[in-house]
Write a structure and sequence with these properties.
By secondary structure, this protein is α/β, with parallel strands linked by helices. Helix content is 52%, strand content 12%. The structure holds NADPH dihydro-nicotinamide-adenine-dinucleotide phosphate (NDP) and retinal.
Length: 305
């Protein structure tokens, strides 16, 4: 339909990507045609059901595995004139646990998906956007792209890598009238959380000393569950942020977009002390000395005030 913007979203089989696809495809003014992609179309049912009438009209499905050059090329070549107005890089995987127990191969998979997966998409879509002097690229980063969290070392590193990549690229893209923006959610209730808990139940942590396993299982995990319970947002909260970003494109949307104001002070701590000691010690005390959720929340609140 003329005037309709083509939005391509990665990782739409569940969670944030699914809700973004549904929200944009159900836009009352029908401003968007959403190409909701996933690596395995067998997982499409939840999306199709949630999309309702939009499915087959303002929402179409396509296969896309962000880890495969061929899959990315095939998907983009299958789009009319390869024209994508808005690219939303959402697909991503988590990884928690003591470093000693994680094989390098598993860490590479996280970078292959969260970092190179986004770059693969941008490389395929950006040249056409630059030629057209228009387009919007959104990257779903994380608060862990701005502040590391204990036992999330490699996941945080993959998101930090994205932040550095985007900060650098945004400057060039500005010259071509292409907008790049990031979204940094805190904890969100999606399959991400369930996958993490299931993963932890299955693993045995070989090669890790019992003291570290104890800190991970009995100190970090319960606090992490509390944090999700106390501060967790819904995928719809994040989808709303993406809708705003897209809608306000003409007003040059913000580059960074944290979705959970409770994390702002944590990030501010880092810039308040250039030696980095304040952040490291604050996290240490939050983890080891204030393990109950009320204490954690009141810590947040005191910082906010
Ligand atoms: N949930 C949270 O607390 C937070 C999440 N994020 C980020 O949000 C994004 C979405 O995660 P969320 O919705 O929470 O988690 P989900 O696990 O619910 O969704 C992740 C999606 O990514 C897809 N995916 C994974 N690998 C690939 C791949 N190689 N190619 C294409 N798709 C792939 C999954 O597909 P499949 O079904 O095939 O596995 C799934 O659709 C991620 O980038 C994550 O890092 C950021 C901050 C917090
Ligand atoms: C804040 C905080 C914690 C945990 C934070 C978590 C668990 C954040 C999760 C964010 C996610 C899931 C982002 C996804 O990209 C600890 C270390 C338990 C205690 C100290 C304070």
């Amino acid at each position: 339909i003329p005037g309709q913007k083509v939005v391509l979203i990665t990782g739409c089989s569940s969670g944030i990507g699914l809700r973004m696809a549904v929200m944009l495809a159900n836009d009352e003014q029908k401003r968007y045609h959403v190409i909701a992609t996933m690596r395995d179309l067998k997982r499409k049912d939840k999306l199709v059901e949630a999309a309702g009438d939009a499915y087959g009209k303002t929402l179409s499905l396509a296969v896309l595995d962000v880890c495969s050059d061929e899959s990315v090329k095939q998907c983009i070549n299958g789009i009319k004139d390869r024209h994508v107005d808005i690219l939303i890089n959402n697909a991503g995987i988590g990884l928690v646990g003591p470093l000693e127990s994680i094989p390098i191969e598993e860490m590479k998979k996280v970078f292959e998906t969260n970092f190179f997966g986004v770059i693969r998409m941008i490389k395929e879509v950006m040249p056409d956007m630059k030629k057209r002097r228009g387009g919007h690229i959104i990257v779903v980063s994380s608060v862990m792209g701005l502040q590391g969290v204990v036992f999330n070392d490699v996941y945080a590193a993959s998101k930090f890598a994205m932040e550095g990549f985007c900060e650098s690229l945004a400057v060039q893209l500005l010259k071509f009238n292409v907008t790049l923006s990031m979204i940094e959610p805190g904890p969100v209730h999606t399959e991400f959380e369930a996958k993490m808990i299931q993963d932890v139940r299955q693993k045995e942590y070989p090669g890790t000393d019992p003291e570290t396993v104890n800190y991970f299982k009995n100190v970090y995990l319960p606090s992490s569950v509390d944090i999700f319970e106390a501060l967790g947002q819904t995928p719809d909260d994040i989808a709303k942020v993406s809708s705003h970003l897209i809608y306000f494109i003409s007003n040059s949307p913000r580059f960074r977009n944290m979705t959970n104001p409770l994390y702002t002070p944590i990030v501010a701590l880092k810039y308040a002390d250039e030696t980095g000691g304040l952040s490291v010690h604050a996290f240490y005390h939050m983890l080891f000395n204030l393990v109950c959720s009320y204490a954690l929340i009141s810590f947040h609140c005191r910082l906010v005030i």
